[in-house]
Amino acid sequence: MTLVPSPEAQLSFLTKLQRLFAEGDFTATYKFALIIALADLAVELGADDGGALRLSNRSIAAKFIELYWQQTAPYSTGRAGTAPGVLAQNNGANAAVLTVIAEFRQSSPVATPLSARTLAGYPALIRRVADTVSAQPLQYLQNLGGQRDQFLYERARGVTILLPGVHYCLRRFQPLVQQLARSRWIDHIKRNRLNGPLLGEADDLEAFLFETPRQTLAEIGAGLRLLNGSRCFYCGSTAHEVDVDHFVPFSLYPRDLIHNFVLAHPACNRSKSDTLAALPHLERWLEHITRHHDSLQEIGHTVGRPADRVASRSVATWGYANAASSGAQAWLRAGLYEPVGASYTNCFV
Ligand SMILES: [Zn+2]
């Protein structure tokens, strides 16, 4: 196992990343998508060691498709004085990735990012997106203030290799990296004068760009109810109304994976809020995603959201390991918390 980066190295990584946001040239939103994609892949495929991580450009392209899919649909504020339309992601002609995805969606109108994978045209879509990602953001991301500073990755044919220590830092600071990239992405879209007539004073841009639509959440809830009835995952009480809750909080990992959704009655949901769930819940969740794997996969296919048990498990492993190392508390029930200790991380072995 390679040594993990020292605290100084981690700090210098964050400083560089901040410089990248401050000094990088962002004519399109691609670079934000690339940073989010690399951080997601580091969480899902990486480990907590200081080694390098090899990523295929196609796996990065698949993340781009997932990220931009929703954004190829017209955005509408529904308010007077604004017109619905597809948001511009580029200061000039619209971004090629968007055009390619939009074309694909026109030829397969019912497809979702997930069901698209089984369609005949998908390999060509991946290839085209991977070509653009390779020629543009991967090529230019590491240019800071007019100079190349190769601090994140090196490239070889068809692959991107995160340098030693980089995927460790991306995992460690994932929520921060996501938040930075998302807020700059939103900002970029707001500042683009082409979007003026669409946006007006809209304030729901973050939800439109990055969150699972309410309608889809309702469908996920209906699917989960078929598995366990309207029972709260945390306290077991049967509730007339149940919410769809992120087991690993959305604030910690803002990407919706089907295996990470459970039903919770509103009081438990509110009380748990943005904390991780305590050991008995974690053990039950690990059992739940194994026992109901096939059904969860099916719900994912129906609603078109990613259903990936391995990724969900790695996200939880990562979330709890970070919590244990920072001395965080986990939520047991209303008003009762306990420290995240070694027994938590042992669950994943
Ligand atoms: Zn409850």
What does it look like?
The protein is mainly α. It has 16 helices and ten strands. It has helices spanning 7-23, 30-45, 57-69, 96-107, 122-135, 137-140, 166-172, 174-191, 196-199, 205-210, 214-228, 266-272, 279-291, 293-303, 309-325, 342-346, and strands spanning 53-56, 143-144, 147-148, 153-156, 159-162, 243-246, 261-264, 276-277, 329-333, 336-339. The protein has a three-stranded antiparallel beta sheet with strand order 1-5-4. A hairpin with a 2-residue loop joins strand 4 and strand 5 (159-162). Helix 4 (96-107) runs antiparallel to helix 5 (122-135) and helix 11 packs antiparallel against helix 14 (293-303). The longest helix is centred in the middle third of the chain and has 18 residues, at 174-191. Zinc ion binds at residues 232, 234-235, 237, 264-265, 268.
Q: Tally the beta strands.
A: 10
Mean pLDDT comes to 89
User: What Rg do the Cα atoms give?
Assistant: 21 Å
Based on secondary structure, the structural category is: mainly alpha
Overall tally of structural domains: 2
Give the spatial strand order of the biggest sheet.
1-5-4
Q: What share of residues is helical?
A: 40-55%
What's the total helix number?
16
Shape: globular
Stretches with pLDDT under 50, minimum 5 residues: none
Small-molecule components bound: zinc ion
CA(first)-CA(last) distance:
17 Å
Helix and strand succession?
Answer: HHEHHHHEEEEHHHHHEEHEHHHEEH
Largest sheet: 3 strands, antiparallel
Layout of helices and strands:
Elements: H1 7-23, H2 30-45, E1 53-56, H3 57-69, H4 96-107, H5 122-135, H6 137-140, E2 143-144, E3 147-148, E4 153-156, E5 159-162, H7 166-172, H8 174-191, H9 196-199, H10 205-210, H11 214-228, E6 243-246, E7 261-264, H12 266-272, E8 276-277, H13 279-291, H14 293-303, H15 309-325, E9 329-333, E10 336-339, H16 342-346
Parallel strand pairs: 8-9
Antiparallel strand pairs: 1-5, 2-3, 4-5, 6-7, 9-10
The chain binds zinc ion (ZN).
